[in-house]
From TrEMBL, chains A, B:
Protein origin, superkingdom: Bacteria
Entries under SUPFAM superfamilies matching the protein: NAD(P)-binding Rossmann-fold domains
Identification of the protein by name: Ornithine cyclodeaminase
Organism for this UniProt entry: Aureicoccus marinus
Length: 356, 356
């Protein structure tokens, strides 16, 4: 019998940072955009099971949720992201709004193959998804990007989009002036040649070619704006709407736009698609990416990528992180699962060895 | 702002073994039986959310499943066990049938508090649950224990029951003669003063006071026996039935017995309760334990504990492991989650520090 490896590959927060530093952030995000694009082009719904995320949400102070986002690639693996969303984390605990981890399992045995931080991968895959969607839907050569909400997501959205578009001016707004004050510092490491312009929401919406909304607007407090006189080709990556009742965009704008959800069934519950009938929703992301012939038409009009977060994106980023980590020797193998030399004895460590 | 600890307490396989060795297996299982009993007595359904486990199961070679078992104690924590069940693991890969891990989350923030092996805790909590159920339902002073299926579960079932009953003779059967051959060796460390008697299923059923069935019988291949002429007070811990169509006991025996499920809704789908109508099922375990006045009557007749595995048991064993681990200094704190000093910058490690 060939001995099965029972080590779990552990990638901590600093391991993932090390992978990005050694790979180079630009090369990493380019790789991720490429993998996600290929994954969407080749999406095989007969081999992938992706249920809607489920979990627990609570209003009890402080409000939040812990949810489970699994994906099953038949004959290969299960990937699970556990994600916590607690909007008061930055203010109350100096913690990110989103905390999470990702685990992957070999479906031959149920063995836990890897465990890694999910915070950085979530940020990166969300940004990569916006880039992939924008390449299909936004005006090629777009130079003006708007960021409403200048938190963690805005940094990586800007980074990913800068790899596909010749961005020149970045129009920013945040309800917290401090987030605008230090945005320049936070993107310093990206070494982008762009102008940052502080503005108000209405001006941004009416000016830019591409807009990313990534706010913590409260349930039933949206949309972020009502009236608009935007570019005829405006493309919006709507990232913040990911909870029932949490909406960033006005319904009228959605009706004028091609609306592409990342995961249709989930977006109808948690995303901007909450505001739409089935017939008012466009193709989903995997349909869009597998039909490049439709892109040119969509690029001429208004479009919205309704990004609620999809476990398939987590699988792709987790696999890339693990692959790079193993190649670079970053991370460590640990014996997490109790797998004794005598599988029929949970007390092998207090008993004498069994003759087999 | 008080700084929130963002370390995750990691308990590997050998850490959990160390906790058991330092605590002493007897003291550990006594503590666990005690905690579980108190937890069931004080079970507060208004503060605990425990959904039926869900996940992926597959027939593709080799067959198996990966499932998610969460519990939410409101205002405190979420505990998640991910469990793989792959019955061909021992034969194909020299791995245990069950592989799993347990993670716990602070619901204030979503922070991952602990990650630990789930293999050993699953074995221990399943055994402790049988002990708790048997104390309520089996004849006090029972001396004869039957074990049908002599795998990993049988070892810990025997151990837990030996702490509550003056066991003298242990009647064993396994479809694999080797599992009977080396059973004595596997329980050596428990230092029990018992006689092991190899027997056949029918003799065991008709002889013993308490019976534990923990087999890997296939779907639609049960029950393990049809006819019986057992003790009028026979109590059975039915551990093996935990999958649709997987059954160990004949329906007639269930109808003659008080049948107590660990988790009613799940047992009706996966346990012996699949064979019963609602009205044919007795109180569930938490009802039974909180009503000791009913025990004496139940002890006089036949009874079955339909043990399918319950996330609440996982929470209790995980909390006990973590508590002992921290007290003994076993385990280590790791920075798994990417939590930077600048929560609004996922790229803090490539940017210059932000002035706050």
């Amino acid at each position: 019998m060939k001995k099965y490896s029972t080590k779990t590959w552990l990638l901590t927060a600093s391991d993932l940072e090390e992978i990005l530093i050694q790979t180079g952030p630009n090369r990493f995000i380019d790789l991720l955009i490429e993998r996600l694009t290929r994954g969407l082009e080749n999406f095989d719904s007969s081999s992938l099971e992706i249920p809607i995320r489920t979990g627990f949400n609570y209003q009890a102070a402080p409000e939040g949720l812990v949810e489970f986002m699994p994906v099953h690639e038949k004959g290969k693996e299960v990937v699970l992201k556990v994600v916590g969303y607690h909007p008061h984390n930055p203010d109350l605990f100096d913690l990110p709004t989103i905390l999470s981890n990702i685990t992957t399992y070999d479906t031959k045995t149920g063995h836990l193959k890897t465990i890694m931080d999910g915070v950085l991968p979530t940020a990166l895959r969300t940004a990569a998804a916006s880039a992939v969607a924008s390449r299909a839907m936004a005006k090629p050569g777009s130079e003006k990007l708007g960021l409403i909400g200048c938190g963690a997501q805005a940094v990586v959205q800007l980074h990913a989009l800068s790899r596909l578009f010749p961005l020149k001016s970045i129009w920013i707004y945040d309800i917290d002036p401090k987030a605008m004050d230090n945005f320049q510092d936070r993107i310093e490491g990206l070494e982008l040649d762009v102008n940052l312009i502080r503005s108000d929401i209405e001006t941004i919406v009416d000016t830019v070619d591409i807009l990313c909304t990534a706010t913590s607007i409260g349930v039933n407090e949206g949309p972020l704006f009502e009236h608009y006189n935007c570019q005829p080709h405006l493309h919006i990556n709507a990232v913040g709407s990911d909870f029932p009742g949490k909406l960033e965009l006005p319904r009228n704008l959605l009706l004028e736009s091609t609306v592409v959800p990342d995961f249709r069934e989930q977006a109808k519950i948690e995303g901007e698609c909450q505001q739409l009938q089935d017939t008012e929703i466009g193709p989903d992301l995997k349909q869009l990416i597998s039909q490049p012939i439709t892109w040119k038409t969509i690029q001429k009009g208004m479009s919205v990528f309704d990004s609620t977060g999809w476990a398939y994106e987590d699988q792709i980023v987790a696999n890339l992180m693990e692959e790079l980590g193993r190649a670079l020797g970053v991370g460590q193998g640990i014996h997490l699962e109790n797998v004794s030399s005598d599988v029929k004895n949970p007390y092998h460590f207090i008993s004498k060895p069994v003759q087999v």
